[in-house]
Each structure stands twice: as C-alpha cells, then as structure tokens.
Amino acid sequence: MASKTAKQKTVVISICTGTGGIAAGGLKVVEAFEAAFVESKVTAEIGPRTHKVGCRGFCAKDVLVDVAVDGNTETYQFVTPDKVEKIVQEHILAGKPVKKWLVKKDYHDFHSKQQKLVLANCGTIDPESIEEYIATGGYRSAEKALKMEPDEIIDIIKMSGLRGRGGGGFPTGIKWESCRRAGGNIRYVLCNADEGDPGAFMDRSIVEGNPHSVIEGMIIGAYAIGATEGYVYIRAEYPLAVDRLRLALDQARDKNILGKHVFKTDVDFDIKVVLGAGAFVCGESTALMTSIEDKAGEPRPKYVHTTDRGLWGKPSNLNNVETWANVPLIIDRGADWYAGIGSEKSKGTKIFSLVGKINNTGLVEVPMGIPLRDMIYKIGGGIPRKKDFKAVQTGGPSGGCIPASHLDMPIDYEHLSEAGSMMGSGGMIVLDEDTCMVDISKYFLDFCKDEGCGQCTPCREGVAQMVRLLTEITEGNGTLEHITLLEELSHMIQDASLCALGTSAPNPVISTLRYFREEYEAHIIDKRCPAGVCKALTTFTIDETKCTGCTICARNCPVGAITGEKKSPHFIDQEKCITCRVCYEQCKFGAVQKG
Amino acid sequence: MATMLNLTINGKDIEAPEGITILEAAKREGIFIPTLCHHEALEPEGTCRLCIVEISGAIRHSIRISCIQQVKEGLVVETDTERIKKNRRLILELLLGRSPYSKELLDLASKCGVMTSRFLTGENDDCVRCGRCVRVCRDKIGVHALCWVNRGYERKITTDFERLSEYCIGCGSCAQVCPTGAIKIEDRGNERKIYTWGQVLARFKLEKCKECGRPYAPKKYLDRINERAYKTKGLELVDYVCPECVKKAERPTPIKMPFGGGDMPFAI
Predict the structure, then answer these.
(1) Which residue, A576, A583, A119, A115, is CA-closest to A369?
(2) pLDDT digit string, tens, across residues A9-63
(3) Is the ipTM reported for this complex over the cut 0.95?
(4) Is the pLDDT of residue A177 over 90?
C-alpha cells in the first residue's frame, strides 16, 4: 500500500440528517463542511467527503457529527455551522480533535445498554444511496430468500419468534402462513407506516434512515405469501420519509430488485406508496385498508381476518415498518440467532422513542426484556433537574401509565400488558413528579375523542363522556361518583367497541386509576392537584423562610402578582395569580410552594 | 338446502341454517335482541353495538355483535348476561344523553330497563348515528345523496357541503328506514321537503297525478323509476298516475317496481 503523506488521509464526515438532525440545522452543517473544505484546500486520498446519514438516535444532542480520519472516528455533539471551521482546522488538518465539543460520558451511557440490529445501518449509511445499503450486505437476504421455498421462509420466521411490532404482538410467521393458506390468486402485502401516536418516531426514523430494509423485508414477505403487489401506507405528515421511500423504490426498480423478474427469477413484485391524510384511526388495520381503497378510513368489524379478506376483499398481510425491517436480519442470520435475543416469549429487539421528562431524549433499540430501570436511568440518563420519576406512559394514547413501583419490570409484551399498559408501537413518554395523572389521562382521552372515527356508540359517545367527567374533576367539580362512572364507562367501551382504537381508548384512565387513585381522590375530596397542574385546584405561595429576595419570580411573573423588596421575602397576590407556574419553575431555592 | 347447525342460545338448543347471523337465529326463536343500526334490507354495519352477545363454545369466549357474527356449529350464545345487560344499558344511556326526547329510543331503553340517562349533554338531536339512511341511499337507491361528515363525537349525517342535495331524488327511503324518525319527509301543497333537526336536506316540486290531479311525486323520482323499470323489465311508465288511482283502476302497475329488489320500503 502506498504510504500516505500527512495530507493524504481518508476523511469522512457523517452528519445526522434525520428529522431531528435537520431541525437542529444538519443540512447547514453539511454546507458549512463543504465550504470549509474548499476554503482550507483540504485534500485527501479518499474524500474529504460529507456523508448524510439517518437518525443516529441521540436526538437530544443533535447535530451529531462523526469525523473519521483514517478510520479513527470521533463524535461531536451540538455542532453548528460556526463550529465547523475550527473542527476542520484543528481536527482534520492538525490532527487534534476539539475535545470540548466531543460527546461526553452520557453519549456512551446512552449506547451502552442498547443493541442496534434494525437500526444498525440507520445513522451509518446514506439513506438515499442504494449502493451503500448493498455494500453493507443489503438485499443479500432477499436474494437468498428467493432461492428458498416459501414455506421454508415462513418456518424460519415462525421459529424466530418474531411478533408484530405495531402493538398487537401477533406472531408474524403465523399471520404469513394464514395469508398464504387463504384462497384465491391475488394477495397483498401491506406496510403500516401510519405512525400516529404522540411522541412516537420509530417507524419514521427507520423509513428515513434505512428505507431499503423495509423494502427488502416486504420482498421476502411477498414471496413467502405469494403476493405480487405491495403497499406502503405512510403518513403525509412525514414528507422526508415519503421522499426517501419513493427514491429508494425507484432505485430498487432500476436495479431490478422490484418489478418484473425480481433478481432474474420468475417472481414479480412491486410496491406502491399510499399517503395517509392525517387520520389516527387509519393506523388500525381495517381502516388502513378501506383508506387504500379510496373510501373514508373507517374500521370495519373484523370477524373475518384480513389475512382471509382484506384489501379489496383479497387476502392481505399487514405488518408494521419495524416488523418488515426485522425480516431481512432473520433470513440473513437465522432463526436461532434471533430467538436467542430477548425474553422468553418476546424475541429480538424493540425500538422505543424515549421522550418526555428525560435527559437523553432519543431513539433507542434494546433487547426485549431489559428492565425499565435501565431504560430510564442508564439509557435515558434519569429525570432532568433531579426531579422524581413518577410514571412512564407506553403504547401511545391507548397505552397505560406504569408507576415507579414497576421500575424493575422487564419490558416485553407480556409484562407490559400485565401492568395494564401495552407495547404499542413503542412510544415511551416519561413523566416526572410535576405531571398530574388526571390531566394526562384527560389529554390522551381527548386525543382519542378527536381521532376516533365516530362509527360505534361506545367509543363516540363514551369517550366524549369520559373526557367530560375528567374535565370536571380537573376543574374541581368532581364527585366520587365520577370515578364510578369512569370505571363503568371504561369497562363498557373495552367490551363493546368496534375496533382496537375504541377498546383500548380507556386504558390511560384504567391504569391511572389502578396506580394513582389517590391522586383522583385528592382532586375530588381535598380539591387539590398534588402535582400543581390543574389550574383551578392549585395555589402557589412563597415560603418566607426559604425566599432570599432574589426577585427572579417577580421579574418573570407575567401578571405582576408577586411583590416584595430586594433581599426580603416576596409575596404572591392570589387575586392576581393565574397559576401559570412560572415562579415555581424559576425559583432556584425551592421557596415557591404549590398546594 | 343449507346445512343445519346446532347451537345454544340462552341455554336453549336450536337449529339454524348455515350463513345466517346470531341475530336472525334468535329472532326465529322469538328471542329479543335490541338493535338500532340493523335493518333487514341493508348490509349490517355493526355500529350501534346494542346487539352485543356473549359467545363461547365454537369461538373463544368473547363479546361479539350478533348482527354480523354468523352461527356456527356448537356455538354457545348468551344474549342477556349481567355483563351484556350492563353494557347495553350504558350504551342506551349514552344515546339518550344526546337524544333525550326520541320516543322510539325511550321505548327501546325502557324495554332494556333504562329510565333516565346520567349523561345528559343538553343536546336534543334525535339522530343516533346508526347510518341506516346513508346505507339505504348509497347501497339500495344508488344515489349517494347523504354522507357522513366529521370524525368522532362531531360525526353527523348531512348532504354534500351541507347544501340542498343535488343528487337526492326525493324517494324518502332515508326517512323510512330511520329508527328514531330523525329524518322526516313532508308533502305540503305541491312541495316535498326532506329534513332533519336543523337542516333541510332536499326540496322538490311534486308532479300532479294525471287522473286525480293531486300532487304526488317529484319528477326526479319518477324518472328514476322509469329508468330502472325500463332497464330491468323493459317496462315504461306511460301515464303518470298516483298509487291510489292505480289501485282504484285495478290495473297492472309498473310503479311498484322496487329499486334494489327484495322488500325495499317506499314512501309514496
């Protein structure tokens, strides 16, 4: 190998251009690097080149930039265009990384407990390049699968123990098998990318960061099931994901990976993209299918499985983005390898979006069965401002809240549903001591009230009444009968609703009543909101012994309700106070008391 | 001859032909299951959820709606368990919360043991969102004059853009199938009006009967009948005569041609 001169190095700059990265200015950082290369006349054997990659997970530290010089990679956090010049001069030209901007210990803690399988290439390859995907072993599994018997593939998926990642957790292999066994010649494979849960961005990140993995999974599935047509139903609110997916499909067609005679075999398969029009309920399988059929996206009673009669009355197999992205891995490395990861009944890894009151917000992939505590404190880095952990809300609006007493619970399908929540698609919203559980239930119920289709009486009328009852409780007009009514309605809605959105809509109330009943009772009996969130039930006062008279509260009060001399205790005028919490948040001495 | 299946409803062993629903099987045995959205001429949609039953045996123990679930060999059905009754009463209470003065709904509620509702909303809309009118207009008449708008609690039935319907032919099937009389049809003078609480859906001038001179049907409707009669049976309406005069004259009447076939009711 030719010896390298000081200036001839391999320089690759990988910059996060997932949604989080772009929002933090990722594209501007790319431009800044390119401009800096021209200006400082950096030359190198390979590169220097900027490399746009998908979501790297640790969105709280965006823009994250990997600078690889001769294979030695250093990661920078919070990179902005004005930091680029210094990085180029010192790190790339002088060979001394800018230590103060490098990632710290929390970045390594964030990754230490994770096991990135589905996300392995997400954040390392350019999602807009099929060559890079193929270079990392992409489409190898599809090629291999097309040489196997369909039943053989289904057996592998069954043995791997893969379960649906969309929330239900139905065994994927069994679903494929029943679709394959269904009559008729026309079958469809569908991909659900209508990720509507507040605070969830797993599917979005996969499609944005590695769209080809989903396409590959669908090719394998289509061949195993006997489908020649596939659909990806994706939210129109994910423009970047839609663009990258469409680009990926075009690239795959150019390479004869989609279309007629896939991989020069007799198999024909192509994928169409259908955009969702912003209805949460279209994430439900039958509603998704009616929406693809150009009808109003409303669920239908599912007494005949969609694997027998789905899209246009034909057998259809619907899986979630993450499920499809798992398939190539299983074909590549085998069912035994996959079944070796995870817990007894939940195999493989699961991606979560860790959000809410947590230090390390981001996209996390962990093996199934990891304790909740590791998720919150090791990966998540604990709660900001040293507050207490109160609960974690999993499974989106139809999930439940898991309290601190369950922190040592393993995260898998069984344990989550035992605890009264569900896996859902993998949203994980962390709540701290300042969150009112009645208020949070009201938020999720209100979401379901607006987003339900309104066909069936229990969900349409029942959820609306539950929102009314919860509102009355938060406004201080609740009685103990409200709790009884909430419970009665919850059970009826679970029993009698038409679709899964309805049957799971009362889950936030059921789980908070199970773990935080005393908080409901405090609202009703003591007329007090323990978290200090419900405005009608909260007063803020200043503890004279703790107040130092720093005046920060008075200066920040928007209505001028706080008075007091400098260096002497302040006072809140309750008549003027609008309980906006600003003083409580601002006080550095804990002198502002809520009650 | 359809295969006969053996099943149990409320402890009683019965036989029912394959392909019928639990609701139909129960009706044959004289077992009452309340429904609102079900109409025998229409495809079941299963949205009012009043016809829920508990099933076990051939299918794992669960709650299903009897207007869609078909009978199965060995199925055990319970239509009136405590759990079912409790759920049903709550659903009725919820419906009464928005339609507290609907006579039909009050009758059905009292039949199920509901006297008052704990969920009064202050609204007074007789529509229970069962969607029978939308289905009859779309599936049987083939007109699509009525549609759903909005989602969730705001869902309601109206015409396109909430204006007087361009497509309505004034047949009145919607009013005929409405279980609570929320859609009304009214002929006054030579005008027909189809309306709900708060919205006139369509208005028509009535054509006069060639024999008695009484205004009796909108032109659009007669044209439609003519078209359908010609297409299906090669018949043609020559003279425009009202049903009463037709009856008096005791002559064969092409006007009795039903639209969708079967026993579609007409309001003429």
Answers:
(1) A115
(2) 788 889 988 888 899 998 999 989 888 888 877 766 566 678 888 888 888 888 8
(3) no
(4) yes
Instruction: State how far the Cα of A90 lies from the Cα of A519, in Å rounded to an integer.
Output: 56
Domains of chain A: 3-103 (3.40.30.10), 130-339 (3.40.50.11540), 349-432 (3.10.20.600), 437-524 (1.20.1440.230), 539-594 (3.30.70.20)
Q: How far apart are CA A22 and CA A241, in angstroms?
A: 13
Q: Supply the pTM of this predicted model.
A: 0.88
Mean pLDDT of A512-522: 94
Q: Which residues of A touch B128 (CB under 8 A)?
A: 457
* Digit-coded pLDDT (tens) for A330-383: 999 999 999 999 988 899 999 999 999 999 888 899 999 999 999 999 999 999
- A455–B83 C-beta distance less than 8 A: no
Looking at the complex, does the CB of residue A453 fall below 8 Å from at least one CB of chain B? yes
Indicate the residue type of A253: R
pLDDT tens for B91-111 read 999 999 999 999 999 999 999
In this structure, the strands spanning A592-594 and A540-542 are antiparallel
**Smallest Cα–Cα separation from A592: which of A464, A581, A17?**
A581
The angle at the Cα of A366, spanning A374 to A212, to the nearest 5 degrees, equals 155
CA distance A338 to A141: 14
* CA of B94 vs chain A CAs: smallest distance (Å): 6
Gap from A200 CA to chain B (nearest CA, Å): 22
Tell me the pLDDT of chain A averaged across its residues.
89
Question: What per-residue confidence (pLDDT) applies to B62?
Answer: 92
> Tens digits of per-residue pLDDT, A311-344?
998 999 999 999 999 999 999 999 999 999 998 8
Residue among B45, B86, B151 whose CB faces A452 most closely = B151
Q: How far is A411 from chain B (nearest CA, A)?
A: 28
Its sign, for the CA torsion A339, A341, A347, A353, is negative
Taking CA–CA distances from B64, the nearest residue in chain A reads: A496
Alpha-carbon distance B25 to nearest alpha carbon in chain A (angstroms): 18
A457 contacts on B by Cβ (under 8 Å): 47-50, 91, 94-95, 128-129
User: Residue B65 is encoded by which pair of tokens?
Assistant: 């709606």
Contact at CB, A492 and B48, closer than 8 angstroms: no
Contact of A450 with chain B, judged by CB distance below 8 Å, is answered with: yes
